């Protein structure tokens, strides 16, 4: 599936991913390929981007706010204050603040 994370200042992340875990207002939830269409609010927390099939090293230029998760080179994280997420037709768009 395709993930795009956008802030008011810039596109933070834009690439194919295997899954994404987000901090929903009612708790964390994960989206995988073929997830049902959804629109949801996000609260302050960390977005975890799972790139199981590729190391983050293949992403040429990551935005400064995208960092590797601990020692796992196939998980990237982005901290957000709040936001909105939409998934439809295997495309996830996060409007992050």
Automatic annotation (TrEMBL):
CDD domains tied to this protein: F1-ATPase_delta (cd12152)
Membrane topology: Peripheral membrane protein
Highest taxon of the lineage: Bacteria
SUPFAM superfamilies cross-referenced by the UniProt entry: Epsilon subunit of F1F0-ATP synthase N-terminal domain
Chief place of localization: membrane
Subcellular location: Endomembrane system
Keywords: ATP synthesis, CF(1), Ion transport, Membrane, Transport
Annotated ranges, domain ATP synthase F1 complex delta/epsilon subunit N-terminal: 1-97
Function comment: Produces ATP from ADP in the presence of a proton gradient across the membrane.
Family: Belongs to the ATPase epsilon chain family.
PANTHER family the UniProt entry points to: ATP SYNTHASE DELTA/EPSILON CHAIN, ATP SYNTHASE EPSILON CHAIN, CHLOROPLASTIC
Protein name: ATP synthase F1 subunit epsilon
Organism: Gaetbulibacter jejuensis
């Amino acid at each position: 599936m395709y993930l795009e994370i956008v802030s008011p200042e810039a596109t933070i992340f834009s690439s194919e991913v295997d899954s994404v875990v987000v901090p929903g207002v009612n708790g964390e939830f994960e989206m995988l390929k073929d997830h049902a269409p959804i629109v949801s609010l996000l609260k302050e927390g960390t977005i975890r981007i799972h790139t199981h099939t590729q190391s983050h090293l293949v992403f040429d230029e990551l935005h400064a706010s995208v960092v590797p998760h601990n020692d796992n080179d196939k998980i990237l994280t982005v901290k957000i204050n709040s936001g909105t997420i939409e998934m439809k037709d295997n495309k996830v768009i996060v409007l992050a603040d």
